Amino acid sequence: MVELKARFDEASNIRWARNLQEAGVQVFHGVVGLKTHCKIALIARREQGGKIRQYAHLGTGNYNPSTARYYTDLSLLTSDARITGAVQNVFNYLTAYSERPQYLPLFVAPLNLGKSCLSLIDRETAHARAGRPAFILAKVNALLDERIIQALYRASQAGVQIELIVRGACALRPGVRGISSRIRVRSVVGRFLEHSRVFAFGNGGNTEVYLGSADWMQRNINERVEVMFRLKDLALCSQVFTQVISPYLADTEKTRILLPSGDYVRSRKVGEFSASRNGFRFNAQEFLIGFSEAHDAQAFPPLPRFVKLPAPRNAEGKSPRSAAGAESSR
């Protein structure tokens, strides 16, 4: 499945499609009228005993070895039958125009991704009003969809703590008293192009983490084929918070904070960042380069106080700490 209208890559994609077809590969070009922007792959493998097993790869970044060197992206490789089956249905939609009412556990635009995001935000609003833990963390390229912005305003007014990392255009005004006082927006522009889309919801203490290909923009939600998926493994959720969210929230060198006026200022010029006034300096992208070389997870910045992550569990349903305690007690 090759999207011919990919911005900046039109000529390259046309050449790739022709080369594949000349080699005997069956190439499709997606649904007429919709740009295909999701990043998914499905592999069927004959394993020992002759059994066919499917593997799905879902991500936030393009299958492009050049941009992969300087775009920040995340992806998931899984053999979970529910996910592989849903990915198969998405490919049926793209190649055979076989549309389904839903593709759970995936959210797919333009069918239900926008409504699903609104439902997740509204759920946090309900949790906050009921006095339960509630927060929203999102990292996107742009935030322009009016319905999502209005839902975030309502969530803020209900008491939901909201942290947004928006690299580019943002139509939301944070920090406006009575409207968005609990929302903070920052943009990180550095050596690498911030391209990953990450969404986390407190969900009353049962935190959920999602990745996807779609920004919170009208064109992504209504005019493109996009896929958003949940990370079910608690260890992976913790890894995303530790290695992605925390460093970017701690960055003082490449971060600009969006003010209620619509202006951006360097993070170290904002009074609330007391650590930067005390000489603390932190570059998230440079830090991650060092981490990839040293593999030292102990040095990561702490999570925000309002983030509560469940402890990862083993195959028996016990947390590693409780299992270790039981073993030592024996």
Largest sheet, in brief, is: 10 strands, mixed
Query: What CATH architecture label of the largest domain applies?
Result: 2-Layer Sandwich
User: How much beta, percentage-wise?
Assistant: 15-25%
The topology string of helices and strands comes to: HEEEEEHEHEHEEEEEHEHEEHHH
Tally of helical runs: 9
CATH class of the largest domain: Alpha Beta
Overall geometry comes to globular
- The beta-strand count equals 15
Radius of gyration over all CA atoms, rounded: 21 Å
Estimate percent helicity: 25-40%
Terminal-residue CA separation = 56 Å
What does this structure look like?
By secondary structure, the chain is α/β, with parallel strands linked by helices. The chain has 9 helices and 15 strands. The strands form 3 sheets. Strands 1, 6, 7, 8, 9, 11, 12, 13, 14 and 15 form a 10-stranded mixed beta sheet that branches. Strands 2-3-5 form a 3-stranded antiparallel beta sheet, covered by helices on one side. A two-stranded parallel sheet has the order 4-10. Helix 3 (113-129) packs parallel to helix 4 (146-158) and helix 6 (234-250) packs across helix 8. The longest helix is centred in the middle third of the chain and has 17 residues, at 113-129.
Give a brief description.
With 330 residues, this protein is of the alpha/beta class. It has helices at residues 10-22, 81-96, 113-129, 146-158, 218-222, 234-250, 274-277, 284-294, 320-329, and strands spanning 35-36, 39-46, 52-59, 71-72, 75-78, 107-109, 135-140, 161-166, 183-188, 193-194, 197-201, 208-212, 224-231, 255-258, 264-266.
